[in-house]
Specification:
globular, Protein Transport Mog1p, Chain A, 13 strands, alpha+beta, 3-stranded antiparallel beta sheet
């Protein structure tokens, strides 16, 4: 069968045009993904200046951390179990004006076989816990550094407004710090891990 030369060239031009446009789209998408990943990796440093001179200190040597908190806050501590509660310790900091921050301490050795979980494992766990229970989606996920330790901050809208959940994992313990974003950031500026 003999195809006219003009029809053949029209076909080639259309194919080349589709390839160029498709390649440009792939390039733009890839650039956008790389930019988002770069922003996530850069994250932010949580060492904001907060006047903590009148704050008290909660210290727990067993679970290797201490944290400053406003002196008008009430502190409540509750032991848990990894089997039933999936935390070893829960510490609630409650202000008289409704401010609230909770710190949950978890073992990094999880399950019957005591598999050691990484920061990414704990972030994945907490994302699953938050989505469907406290919110429908995570609005923002940011890699942060708190006093030299890496963490991930999840921001979402809960039934009572904006919430933050910061997840950090060290050698023996992981820490989930959740509450109102402003007071959570202030508490983060005053947390220190004991070595």
């Amino acid at each position: 069968m003999n195809i006219p030369l003009k029809l053949h060239w029209d076909f080639v031009v259309v194919i080349l045009l589709l390839l160029v446009l498709g390649g440009g789209g792939v390039f733009a998408l890839r650039s956008s993904i790389e930019k988002s990943q770069e922003q996530l990796q850069r994250g932010r440093n949580v060492e904001e200046v907060v006047n903590v001179s009148s704050w008290q200190t909660y210290r727990n040597e067993e679970y290797e951390f201490e944290v400053g908190y406003p002196k008008e806050f009430i502190v409540r501590e509750q032991a848990g179990t990894m089997n039933e509660d999936f935390y070893l310790l829960r510490v609630d900091f409650e202000g008289t004006n409704g401010d609230f921050v909770r710190i949950l301490v978890q073992s990094t050795e999880v399950g019957i076989d005591l598999t050691r979980w990484s920061l990414d494992d704990f972030v994945e766990f907490w994302e699953r816990e938050v989505i469907g229970h406290a919110t429908d989606k995570i609005d923002q996920k940011t890699v942060i550094t708190v006093n030299g330790d890496a963490g991930v901050k999840l921001a979402y809208q809960g039934s009572e407004g904006s919430k933050s959940l910061v997840v950090m994992a060290r050698e023996r313990y992981a820490y989930a710090i959740l509450g109102d974003p402003t007071i959570t950031d202030q508490i983060l500026s005053a947390i220190r891990f004991l070595d």
